[in-house]
């Protein structure tokens, strides 16, 4: 059963208000009162949808990963090559990077030093997403290490790699090329797979 359009609009307004406030304040400084004022929503309405600002932020992150998942499914369906861990990882990476760059108005505030909660939440949700998707590939690939450990290595290693590329002012295209090359090297050298 789909949500009422008014509820969807209210949740969108709350999410956009939080993102707007992130341009002016650290996440920990933002209050429910501020979110409600910007979104022109009552506190009662806010609490009917979210228990706190942390759940609102988690919901934004889950929305972003759902966008990535839709992109990933399209890439997987359009892929002409036979499924391989390299193709699956590159499609997964492309879908995440495309979402990351298209939603930069939010992700620019997701950093471990400025907004540690957002960074930790994003990292946790991203790890779970990568694990869920790669769990499906275990029918045609064998990892050397337990899947969750391999996914942790990929997720957190690539997050650090991408963050450093951004600090070095690489373009989104350069980041995509470099991370694909890194994944290709990991697979070619059998670092993660048997």
CATH second-level architecture of the largest domain: Orthogonal Bundle
Cα-based radius of gyration, to the nearest Å: 18 Å
Largest sheet properties = none
CATH fold descriptor of the largest domain: Tetracycline Repressor, domain 2
Helix vs. strand class: mainly alpha
Q: Would you list the SSEs in sequence order as H and E?
A: HHHHHHHHH
How many domains would you count in the coordinates?
Answer: 2
The shape is: elongated
What is the typical, i.e. mean, pLDDT? 91
Question: Can you count the beta strands?
Answer: 0
Uncertain spans, ≥5 residues at pLDDT below 50? none
As a percent range, the share of strand residues is under 5%
Distance between the termini: 44 Å
Ordered list of secondary-structure elements with their pairings:
Blueprint: H1 5-22, H2 32-39, H3 43-49, H4 53-78, H5 85-102, H6 104-107, H7 116-135, H8 147-167, H9 172-188
Give an account of the 3D structure:
The chain is mostly helical. The chain folds into two domains: 1-50, Arc Repressor Mutant, subunit A; 57-188, Tetracycline Repressor, domain 2 (Orthogonal Bundle). 72% of the residues lie in helices and 0% in strands. It has helices at residues 5-22, 32-39, 43-49, 53-78, 85-102, 104-107, 116-135, 147-167, 172-188. The longest helix is centred in the middle third of the chain and has 26 residues, at 53-78. The termini are far apart.
